[in-house]
Amino acid sequence: MPAICKLARQRLHWLGLSVCLLTLAPEAAHSQDMREVRRTVRYLTSRHLHGRGYTHHGDQRAAAFLARQFKSLGLVPFKSAAAYTQPFPLTVNTFPGRLAVTVDGHKLQPGQDFILAPESAGGRFTASVVYFDSLALGQEGARQQFLAQPLQAVALVLTQPDYQRIQAQPLLAQKLGEARALVILVPGKLTASLAPRQVAQPKLLVAAPAWPHAARQITLVLDACLQENYRTQNVLGYIPGTARLDSLLVVTAHYDHLGELGRHHFFPGANDNASGTSMLLQLARHLSQPSHRLRYTVVFIGFSGEEAGLLGSRYFTAHPLFPLDKVRFLLNLDLVGTGDTGATVVNGTLHPKEYQLLQQLNTGPASVGPLSARGRAANSDHFPFSEAGVPAFFLYTRGGIAAYHDVDDRAETLPLTRYNELFQLLSQFLTHLAH
Ligand SMILES: [Zn+2]
User: Fold this and answer.
1) pLDDT tens digits for 63-111?
2) Angle at alpha carbon of residue 301, lines to 299 and 307, rounded to 5°
3) How far does the centroid of ligand 1 lie from the alpha carbon of residue 379, in Å?
4) Distance in Å, CA 262 to ligand 1 centroid
5) pLDDT of residue 366
6) Is 11 buried (19+), middle (13-18) or exposed (0-12) by CB count in 10 A?
7) For residue 115, how far is its CA from the centre of ligand 1 (angstroms)?
8) CA of 257 to the centre of ligand 1 (A)
9) Is 129 or 30 the better-scoring residue by pLDDT?
């Protein structure tokens, strides 16, 4: 433990050192910038940060890193934020301890073979396996047979499509709750999420091909912990405008992710959203240099709780640290580590003038590829601001990797295809807005 902490401090020191070098040489080579970006993404996705969730201080370590960076860049903290942070409570189910699943003597691999439903309970037992009969969904005889079957001592196995269909039939859905455990066989990729509650039974999501054919017995050792009113934090600071102190541009990115899957596995969240967090830091680094300072004040916010339901941005818009009606524009960055097929701008259709500006700037060989505009969508932290009347874009890149909310969203395979081009586009966009 102490050795890990020491290593992390050295890394932070390294980051601080590179910042100074960049500040002295603003025209630093492109490759040097990308080394810096890679270093940030590697740190945020490292084991030391435990998937930036709510166990083993994952979120707090990520927040401390961001605050250190803000301080070294000379960002100003808001008076009401202690050391760049705005604390808020959230309730979330977590899996920080033991995790082992054995089926007929065959051990399933966490992350690859199975994940946990976000609301899963823990448990430690061996149980026989019973398979759900799909006929019970439509045929009265099979349905009655299923409803009469005792499930308290068994693990019930069913396919994800059947599980979803059952939700429309309250009696069957209630019956599922009686099983000792549920094993849901997922036909496609495993995609994890978070829940603010814990149910009474363990619930596994198993990749269908990983489930041994006609298996008869399962042994489960699983710790689940509902973190109630856990204190997490948004991280924010600003660069004062040179002319218009009360007109704000806001750049946001969530730094949290899905946390741990037992003691030995975690969700790295490289694209989601170490990519956006690093872009936010690069923009802060650029705009904090005296020659690049904008006329408008630029606020940078790293949100927590996004994966748990946009909780950090919802909390912020309910408890803003600046008047929301002073925001000229907000730019939210989430999933910006690819770009083979361009980028999408959520809210692009709501703000045609600003979207047109983005398109005008996105030309020539250094473009990020084709842009496309979407309408309103509650899919990232721009949304609570949009609902509060703040003009905002949420930008994400397209193409590249398929990893999303899984253990494969790793720093080593994050392509950062159009990262530099996107950085240029966004810094120009902010500069134009401030004129
Ligand atoms: Zn996400």
Assistant:
1) 999 999 999 999 999 988 778 999 999 999 999 999 999 999 999 999 9
2) 155
3) 9
4) 19
5) 82
6) middle
7) 16
8) 7
9) 129
37 C-alpha vs ligand 1 centroid, how far in Å? Answer: 20
Domains and CATH numbers, the chain: 2-91+230-433 (3.40.630.10), 99-222 (3.50.30.30)
Report CA(277)–ligand 1 centroid distance (Å): 13
Among 357, 333, 328, 330, smallest CA distance to 344 is for 333
Measured in whole angstroms, how far is the alpha carbon of residue 228 from the centre of its chain? 20
Cα 168 to ligand 1 centroid, rounded to whole Å? 27
C-alpha 21 – ligand 1 centre gap (Å): 33
Q: Which helix (H) or strand (E) holds 218?
A: strand 217-222
The Cα–Cα gap between 46 and 134 comes to 43
Quote the pTM value.
0.91
Question: Measured in angstroms, how far is the CA atom of residue 28 from the centroid of ligand 1?
Answer: 32
In this prediction, residues 199-225 reach a mean pLDDT of 98
Per DSSP, the residues of 324-361 read GGGEEEEEEE-S-S--TT-EEEETTTT-HHHHHHHHHH
Reported as a single tens digit per residue, the pLDDT across 333-343 is 999 999 999 99
Quote the percentage of the chain above a pLDDT of 70: 93
The residue count for the chain: 435
**Residue-level pLDDT at 18:** 33
Mean pLDDT, residues 178-194: 97
Cα–Cα distance for residue pair 230/316, rounded to 1 Å: 16
How many Å lie between the centroid of ligand 1 and the Cα of residue 390?
22
Cα-to-centroid distance, 404 and ligand 1 (Å): 7
Q: State yes or no: pLDDT of 58 exceeds 70.
A: yes
Buried b (16+ CB within 10 A) or exposed e, 40-71: bbbbbbbebbbbbbbbbebbbbbbbbbbbbbe
Q: Which of 130-134, 358-362, 363-367 is the least confident region?
A: 363-367
CA 435 to chain centre: 33
**Distance, CA of 13 to chain centre:** 26
Q: How far is the CA of 152 from the centre of ligand 1 (A)?
A: 35
Q: Give the end-to-end CA distance of the chain in Å, rounded to a whole number.
A: 50
